[in-house]
Task: structure prediction
Amino acid sequence: MTQKIFQEAIAAIVDGDADKANAIARRGIEEGVDPLELMTHGFITGINQVGDLFGSGKLFIPGLVKSADAMEKATAIINAALPREQETASGKIVIGTVEGDMHDIGKTIVVSLLRANGFEVLDLGRDVAPQRFIEEAEKFKADIISSSTLLTTTMGVQRELEEELKKAGLKKKYKTIVGGAPVTRRWAKRIGADAFAQDAGDGVNKVKQLLMKDS
Ligand code: B12
Result:
């Protein structure tokens, strides 16, 4: 039964059918399918296939936009269904997609999973400049600054963020974590970020580890 709904979720995203994606997300939750599994094995697998089709010239911008719309609808439903920890975890996280990058589906999943795990999260949205990450972290009294990027051309903004933190004498005050499809552990090390996470679940674990090192 679950395999079937995963396949349906993949097809809805590849076809760019927002109504179907919406209905499948709701049905999956009603039927007790684990929301994160439906996300990972269904919708995310679908959007990755869309990315491959786009990358190999078999799908064009209008198709990409339709699939992204279907993905956004499904993500909103899944995110709202994530089971919440009763306890509040101690840790404040500022997060955003870097300047020049409009991709925010993955970042939104990370936000939801962090909140579901009891963390206080300030979501700055997308197209966030390094200086703004820092200003908002100061105001919010954050422990961690986390950034997402999906474009290779905007990865450098994560490096700029590290440099700005150093310039402001704040590098020790905040832990940093970077993520997004082109981001690797090696990249994180190269720019001096404190952690890298490959997906939202890994992100929650890395945040916990960073906060433990802090205390
Ligand atoms: C959907 C999509 C879009 C949508 C975005 C909608 C939205 N609201 O986000 C739209 C249609 C707007 C779009 C636009 C463009 N896109 Co686009 N897009 C994609 C696509 C297909 C999927 C991205 C996605 O949502 N994945 C699903 C999520 C769940 O995965 P994720 O983002 O990787 O996030 C997970 C992890 O990485 C991690 N994570 C992510 N961030 C963070 C942060 C932290 C702190 C942590 C801990 C973890 C973490 O956790 C997440 C959940 O597990 C990708 C292909 C791909 N496979 O990545 C192309 C892709 C990223 N896009 C691409 C391109 C080229 C573009 C455009 C330039 C196209 C154009 N010519 O206009 C524009 C760019 C506009 C801009 N300035 O940003 C290229 C990038 C190529 C490159 N090397 O840079 C890709 C790779 C497609 C391709 N194969 O060519 N796109």
